[in-house]
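Q: My labmate handed me this sequence with no annotations at all. I'd like to see what the chain might look like in three dimensions before we decide whether it's worth expressing. Could you predict it?
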Amino acid sequence: MFHVSLLAIPEAGSSLLGAAELLASVGTAWESVVSGVKPQPVYKTCVVSESAEPLRFDRWSVKPDAAIDEVARTDAIFIPSLWIQPGETFTGRYREVKDWLIDRYHDGAIICAACTGVQLLAETGLLNGEVATTHWAYADGLRSNHPEIDLHPDKILVESGVGRRLITSGGHATWYDLVLHLIGRTKDKQAAVQAAKFFLLQWHTDGQSPYSAFSENLLHGDALVRQAQEWLRTHHSHPNPVAAVEALVRIPPRSFKRRFKQATGLSPLEYVQHLRIDCAKTLLEEGALSVDAISWKVGYEDVAFFSRLFKRITGLTPSAYRRKFSLPVSFSTARA
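A: Here is what I predict for the chain of 336 residues:
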């Protein structure tokens, strides 16, 4: 059987158990319930940790099947999402775990890192010079700590490394995209589809952009830029907010634009666009205003331009975004 090691460390999230369950279902669940054939497990899963001692998390615990030094060979390793802060590193921690990951990769194992688990994989150096993704809210921290990684936080899944054996995924729920991908790659596409059907799982085909929120950088230390940001936050629908804020700060426009981009990473115009689109997203999620009305409300009289800008930033049209994120009115059972 194909051997998958599931890495458990104290910061591990519930995807550790979810991945184990999903892999265990391959060759068993669909066969038992739907096709009625004899179950034949495809994957042997093994929860591994620095030691075989039980690990207790905030609300649950797990008893590892083996310590990492007992697992010299494995076909694949799954690093779950981790409960860590943006920008947090594992410097000085889990040295044996990181060495084990490096050794198993050089032995030919596939390494799958979900969500914030990518941060641990990054500290092995295996992703240096490679393409990767991670949770959109943790991308800036990972990019700052590991600028040598070619990070694409808009992506759901990214394969890289020798033989495409380093696979990273985005936000937390993409752990099952990652596991389904592993199933399709190491078993076959039909097995992945059957697992998705059995557990009612859908692939996140729209990428991470529709889910991400605009994060204002307010920790840059430039008081003048901070003043401009605070004004724009409450006046972004102004007919000409960039000119208005330039008049407010009273420095030459070219100097202001240079300082603003240096501090925030965006030009004043790009910053306003992100503020407006973030406001539009909230209006689409919570209310019944038409797209035209929302466009005007956030500051765009040209609805066609607003729609193009919205899709460029989020990956979806305003109408598609509303369909995706509006809560269903009712989950009541249909009656014949």
